[in-house]
Amino acid sequence: MSHFLDGPDEPGPRRAQRAKERRGSRRAGVILALVTVIVLVALVGGGWYAAGVLGLRAPDYSTSTTAGPPVAVKIPSGATLKEMGQILADKDVVKSEAAFVKAAKANSKASGIQSGDYRLSTHLPASQAVDAMLDPKNRAAKQITLREGLSLAKQLDSIAEQSALPRQQFADLAKDPASVGAPAYAKTLEGYLFPDTYQLGDTTTAKQILVAMVDEYKQAAGQVGLEQAATALHHTPAEVVAVASVVEAEARTPADRPKVARVIYNRLDRGMPLQMDSTVKYLTGLDGKVTTTDKERAQDSPYNTYLHPGLPPTPIDAPGKASLEAAAHPADGQWLYFVTVNLETGETKFATTLAQHNQYVTEFQSWCTANKSKGLC
């Protein structure tokens, strides 16, 4: 026997009314569920939108943030955007790796970001960091520094070493000075690769390096008015550069440069041999002591100004701007001789007569005797 717990049967009209109420309740439930889903979708979507706008998904520095001090950043070869972003985030260039990746993907030029060394400001919005990495001026390029007074051979050695390019490339270019823009009066690059510091890019060629150095020479020569001065001095521009190279090698202090230049011109005007040890040292390729030996001075070469009158055939080194200035605008004076009497202080004495000069030479020799252990003489 079955037990029904619904109670006694109800009249027909009542049952119909209750069925209608149940159908209405179900429709209301469905509508409520749909509304709930719509609201949830809106909330979730709005939350994601807000997260994107507010940077919650990818923390990023605001464009109103003041950039911080620059830091060195190294991007290894083959690094992915994600790896780049992490490196930048670790250096505090960007606030997060994700922000950088997003900004890079939004920038059509980002594929041009190269590996290598950069110097970038910290606290940058990711989009600005991408732009900064695309700007060549933010690349921490290699440098070449040449000091004054190096011969061409030593310059090429140094340039090749610092640039990591084959020395032969530079040597081949040096055979044709015009190919790297040397002035018409330069028959060699000796003396025309200007001593300075040069920035290199990843793809800088040997020719571009030498062109830049010659351009710097031409700029310096123009600034001192070298060609006009040569005319006034009754010499060619090449001869003035040769004088400047001897000044570079012989002068011990800045104040002495114009005076050494005047001694050279005075001796040339009188037909006297220059008798400069620096020209003999160029011939022998020796560095170190400032003096030369009898054997060295006996070598027959146009660069030996003890044996041959006039200037050496070419400059003997690369003079700096101060020596170019001195050669173009020598001091006024009748000096014919000079000698450095103290190799530590650079004190140099100038003379108009041989007798006076010999007194100064004796003073120099006395200094050398007293300082023999220093090995400078």
From TrEMBL:
It comes from the Bacteria. One of its GO terms (cellular component) is plasma membrane. CDD domains: MltG_like. It is an enzyme of class 4 (lyase). Residues 1-22 are annotated as: Disordered. The keyword Cell cycle does not apply. It is a single-pass membrane protein. It is found in: Cell membrane. Its EC number is 4.2.2.29. It catalyses: a peptidoglycan chain = a peptidoglycan chain with N-acetyl-1,6-anhydromuramyl-[peptide] at the reducing end + a peptidoglycan chain with N-acetylglucosamine at the non-reducing end. One of its GO terms (molecular function) is lytic endotransglycosylase activity. Pfam families: YceG (PF02618). InterPro entries: MLTG-like (IPR003770). Keywords: Cell membrane, Cell wall biogenesis/degradation, Lyase, Membrane, Transmembrane, Transmembrane helix. The record marks E250 as: Important for catalytic activity. Its main location: membrane. The chain crosses the membrane at residues 28-51. The keyword Cell membrane applies. Functions as a peptidoglycan terminase that cleaves nascent peptidoglycan strands endolytically to terminate their elongation. Belongs to the transglycosylase MltG family. HAMAP family: MltG. This is Endolytic murein transglycosylase. The gene is mltG.
